[in-house]
Write a structure and sequence with these properties.
There is one protein chain. By secondary structure, the protein is of the alpha/beta class. It has two domains: 4-272 and 398-414, Vaccinia Virus protein VP39 (Rossmann fold); 277-395, DNA Methylase, Chain A, domain 2 (Alpha-Beta Complex). It is built from 13 helices and 16 strands. It has helices at residues 14-19, 53-61, 116-126, 149-160, 194-199, 204-211, 213-217, 240-246, 277-280, 294-304, 366-372, 386-395, 399-414; strands at residues 4-8, 38-43, 68-69, 86-90, 98-100, 108-110, 130-136, 163-171, 182-190, 229-232, 254-258, 261-265, 307-312, 318-323, 352-354, 361-363. Strands 3-2-1-4-7-9-8-11-12-10 form a ten-stranded mixed beta sheet, sandwiched between helices. Helix 4 runs antiparallel to helix 8. The chain is globular and about 65 Å long. The structure holds S-adenosylmethionine.
Length: 417
């Protein structure tokens, strides 16, 4: 089996950086790939801006004039995508609900612009052996009024397409990485693979705590098989529309799905000490514009302080919006908090550190943000404005997590024919 990969919603290429263990850029700005995977196609298109900074960055680091696609994924003819063994991508948590389509009583229609359906169409057209996805952790709980529905829809789609899958919500800092970013990782494998046949012999408890891809790289404390919850998202639900209308479940941070059953249990990480902000911070001095002026310092003091603000909701009801206080700056002895796309703007969630050289308060530099996600230094220094470099890192992922998952996927593919 070839180690071919496609990267969807590629952004600035976090999956590729992780899977191919990229740590350096050469003098022409190209990534030096050290890993075993051959990327045969990537797609990235930013709907909200005319400029395509993420794609431009991807294309500079991985120049493949033909194989990097910069169009809306919904406009791509899925059959034209090159054959691949692994499909990977980080996609948004949206409303995955479906209804019967009006045009045909048999058709099923998801909401327009919901990117899960694009992934599902590629699975139908290309049937890759393996799938690796990343999403925000609330995916398993959405929507609030029908908890677990969206994840149930995903499970049903994957199951109908012949996949088994496991998932884990991982806080990167608990496993030695520099950011407390909590994300769900999903690994699916098709029933035609040797791996599927081998895993079928394991119990859900073994897969979740010992033999699965996640358990091997991200160890968890022993689980009690009796605490595993089991849900059926096939029997009792005629089609996806019925899953969409009726399914709900309390999914935990780990689980396994095969056939018509899904098993879920709360796991506890066996932790490794994280990389700290102090370890990734630039220690030889940074440009003056990263330091806080007196008025900015006061603004951050307010933003990070506790407050109670009277507000009016959209129905005209008055309420008090309250938030607690944060420490005035982020401790260098701790890992970073979750980086958001607003990082670097005057915002409560922007990191503020005490500069290691002169002790003055400042925001992070774009290079420090890249380090927090374990990208090579200056990865996004590809011609985009500095503001966008922060944005890209808020959208990206902790590449070190993908690197570890990639080691396991590589081992699995080696054992296939
Ligand atoms: C969460 S980010 C993924 C970031 C990526 N994993 C990385 O390491 O940079 C999702 C990406 O999907 C892209 N996107 C959104 N809608 C799209 C569409 N319709 N077609 C293609 N890409 C899309 C966004 O521009 C964004 O870069």
């Amino acid at each position: 089996m070839k180690k071919t990969v496609i990267e969807l919603f590629a952004g600035v290429g976090g999956f590729r950086v992780g899977l191919n263990n990229i740590t350096t850029i050469d003098e022409n700005g190209r990534a030096i790939e050290n890993g075993p995977f051959t990327f045969v196609w990537a797609n990235q298109w930013e709907p909200s801006t005319k400029s395509q900074h993420a794609f431009d960055c991807y294309n500079i680091r991985f120049p493949h004039a033909v194989d990097n696609s910069n169009i809306d994924i919904s406009k791509v003819d899925k059959k034209s995508i090159p054959d691949h063994t692994l499909l990977c991508g980080g996609f948004p948590c949206q409303d995955y609900s479906v209804a019967h389509s009006l045009s045909s009583s048999h058709g099923i229609e998801g909401k327009k612009g919901v990117l899960w359906w694009q992934i599902n169409d590629i699975l139908t057209a290309k049937k890759p052996a393996f799938v690796l996805l990343e999403n925000v952790d609330r995916l398993v709980k959405s929507p609030a009024r029908q908890r677990g529905r969206d994840f149930g829809i995903m499970l049903r789609c994957l199951s109908e397409q012949g996949y088994a899958m496991e998932w884990r919500i991982i806080n990167a800092a608990e496993y030695g990485h520099p950011q407390r970013r909590r994300r769900i990782y999903i690994f699916a494998y098709h029933k035609s693979t040797k791996y599927y046949k081998a895993m079928k012999k394991s119990s859900p408890a073994e897969i979740i705590s010992k033999t699965g891809v996640f358990a091997k790289e991200f160890p968890v404390e022993e689980i009690n098989a009796k605490s595993i919850k089991e849900f059926d998202f096939v029997n009792g639900y005629k089609d996806l529309v019925e899953v969409s209308d009726k399914f709900h479940a309390a999914f935990e941070n780990a689980g396994y799905m095969i056939g018509d059953k899904v098993y879920t249990v709360k796991t506890k990480a066996i932790e490794t000490a994280p990389i700290t902000l102090g370890e990734i911070a630039e220690s030889n001095g940074v440009d003056a514009h990263y330091f806080l002026s007196e008025s900015q310092r006061k603004k951050y003091e307010y933003l990070r302080g506790s407050k109670k603000i009277p507000r009016v909701d959209k129905n005209g009801h008055e309420y008090i919006y309250a938030e607690g206080s944060m420490s005035p700056y982020d401790e260098l002895s701790l890992p970073a908090r979750t980086m958001l796309t607003s990082e670097g703007t005057t915002n409560r969630s922007t990191h503020i550190i005490m500069d290691p050289k002169n002790g003055k308060l400042r925001i992070l530099t774009p290079v420090e943000c890249e380090r927090i996600n374990q990208f090579p230094d200056n990865w996004t220094n590809s011609g985009m404005p500095e503001k966008r470099r922060y944005f890209m890192m808020g959208n990206a992922l902790v590449c070190g997590i993908i690197k570890k998952i990639g080691i396991q996927i590589n081992n699995i593919i080696e054992k296939e024919d």
